[in-house]
Amino acid sequence: MPLLIDAQTGHALSFDDVRQDAAALAESLSTRFGVGSGDSIAVLAHANVDIPIVAIAAWTVCASVVVLPPEVPTDELRETLAQQHLPQVFFVSREFLPATRQVVDGIVLHAPGSEPPHFVVFDAEDGDSALRDDNRLGARAALDIRSLYYMHPGDLPPGRPPLSRSESEDATAVIYFHYHQASNGTTVTPSHMSHRNIIDQYNSSLRRSPSLPSRQSPPAQRSATPPDRPATPHTQPWRSTARFLDADAGTGDHTQVLAFAALRMHWAYRLHRTVLNIFCLGAHYVVAPSFSPLQFIAAVDRYSIACAELTFAEIEWLLDYLQQTRSESAGLLAPLRLVYTESDRAEAELAPRFAWLLPRVSIVHTRFGSYVEPLSRSYP
């Protein structure tokens, strides 16, 4: 079963695809762009199946990932980037390339000696004009991310010394930003996670049983812990974040369940949580750049999705849609069993409507809106 499926195109990536693409991209970051320990790359994009690959590649070269929300206004993006050193590489959706370049140009113009970053486009098309040379302030041509998933002549072979445990405590792996509205404007607060944080959570996740029920088992059953998982934290050896590229790092297909998600990796803790779900808990994601009831219902029907990660507003939108088209749509949602949400209102306010419209589906409140760390009750 693929680890990642694009809900719009049907493009699927297996564990080996993800691992190989991340290894090639890590080499490109290191050898073509000079990204290494202490450096950063930035992501400003709609949800897509390449974002987890970008994160793993950056962590493999001991760099940090600056995660930016795609809906951030230009002024707030400028303020956010002004708080940080410009990243070496900017990964963007095509839609955001012109505005992001304009913001970066302004920062470079007022910071003599600073180098403009490389731009890589997630959703470039063949012959895309956005990829042509741009001579403003020495800007480089944007690249199609697909061109970085292959080894190029002159690239060094994979392999580099990992961060030591002490180095990992100081090296930042992820930077999230929190935007707070106030009467005098918006304040931007960064939140940092170190490589040590990521690996400690990775090791912890490996010790946990997968949270999703198997499609081959009754919903009440939980998947058993694979016998090769470590029993205690004290026996788990130190691993660098390059561990994600090890051939035996993935959990394989022991959890045969697909989860639907508009992967909001710019939200607090979404990026690394998604990667941990995939590599440690057997997650398989159908990824959509945004949510709509019609697209969601079609994806559940097409891929037999058992679990979904939705916000309160998305659940409410889905229920409103079902009330209008119940006879046509309810049957297409037959595979669905669990809806995970971080909203603490969803169970109390929306569960009665679920019981009427979709009696076989349960709402589960979790800390991050994913099938990790249930808060309010056990899984069905």
From TrEMBL:
Positions of region (Disordered): 206-237
Highest taxon of the lineage: Eukaryota
Family under the similarity heading: Belongs to the ATP-dependent AMP-binding enzyme family.
Signal peptide per UniProt: none
Statement: the UniProt record of this protein carries the keyword Nucleotide-binding: no
Keywords: Ligase
Stretches assigned to the AMP-dependent synthetase/ligase domain: 6-160
Designated name of the protein: AMP-dependent synthetase/ligase domain-containing protein
Gene Ontology MF terms: CoA-ligase activity
Pfam families: AMP-binding
InterPro entries assigned: AMP-dep_synth/lig_dom, ANL_N_sf
Annotated Low complexity bias: 206-224
